[in-house]
Specification:
Layout lengths: L3 H14 L8 E6 L2 E8 L2 H12 L6 E4 L2 E2 L9 H14 L8 E6 L2 E8 L2 H12 L6 E4 L2 E2 L8 H11 L8 E6 L2 E8 L2 H12 L6 E4 L2 E2 L7
């Protein structure tokens, strides 16, 4: 089993490996496998890149992202300018249906609302605006409403897990209640946990995924 010191070393190495991240701007604290990221970066995209990078490190059980976003160029954009940029970004993104997502900007934080049919559309909307200059954070309140009723949802999700090279389907249990899917069992990294949730969201009829998967170590390292 990896110690906190070993996990910290691996996290620092991973941050240094990422070309979009300046590892000197980020502090790392590890306790009981839980990683806390601190520091200041000049874009929300860098904050998200650091979080995603750390989630893929073996041994990390959870990530607390306390990185602040502060713009180095003097001033960021006004809320009005950010809102206009966000509207344009959503309009240009082919994965997001036009005129289905509403944008509100308050103190450089972007709030997304509306109703879409698919989770990938909801995720695409967030990604479209999170890299915009001036954005300090994105709160994704878009709801989902599927046209397709859930038919054999559990079987479809299980097969999707089996097709994925990143997941061990035998360790993941799927429970379907209406349009809500609950995942239990264990995976071996936070990135696997996120991948399982993403795969479940792609099943027709699913509007919510309750991800209760636990991150555990590989048996040979236990």
């Amino acid at each position: 089993m990896k110690t906190d010191v070993q996990i910290k070393e691996d996290v620092l190495d991973e941050l240094e490996w990422q070309p979009s991240i300046d590892e000197t701007e980020i502090g790392v604290i590890v306790k009981d496998g839980i990683v806390t990221l601190t520091g200041v970066v000049d874009s929300y995209a860098k904050k998200m890149a650091a979080e995603r990078a750390v989630k893929g490190v073996y041994g990390v059980k959870a990530v607390a992202d306390d990185i602040e976003v502060n713009f180095k160029m003097g001033r960021g954009k006004s809320d009005t300018e950010i809102a206009q940029s966000a509207v344009n970004a959503l309009k240009w993104n082919t994965s997001v249906p036009e005129d289905k997502v509403q944008v509100k900007v308050d103190n450089s934080f972007v709030y997304l609302t509306g109703e879409l049919e698919w989770a990938y559309q909801r995720n695409a909307a967030k990604k479209a605006v999170e890299s915009l200059y001036g954005v300090k954070g994105v709160i994704n309140n878009i709801s989902l409403k599927q046209k397709v009723k859930p038919i054999e949802v559990k079987d479809r999700i299980t097969k999707a897990f089996e097709r994925s090279a990143e997941l061990e389907a035998k360790n993941i249990h799927v429970d379907v209640n209406g349009t809500v899917v609950t995942l239990t069992g264990k995976v071996y990294s936070i990135s696997e946990k996120d991948e399982a949730q993403r795969a479940a969201f792609f099943a027709p009829g699913v509007t919510k995924v309750v991800n209760n998967l636990k991150v555990d170590y590989y048996p040979e390292y236990a």
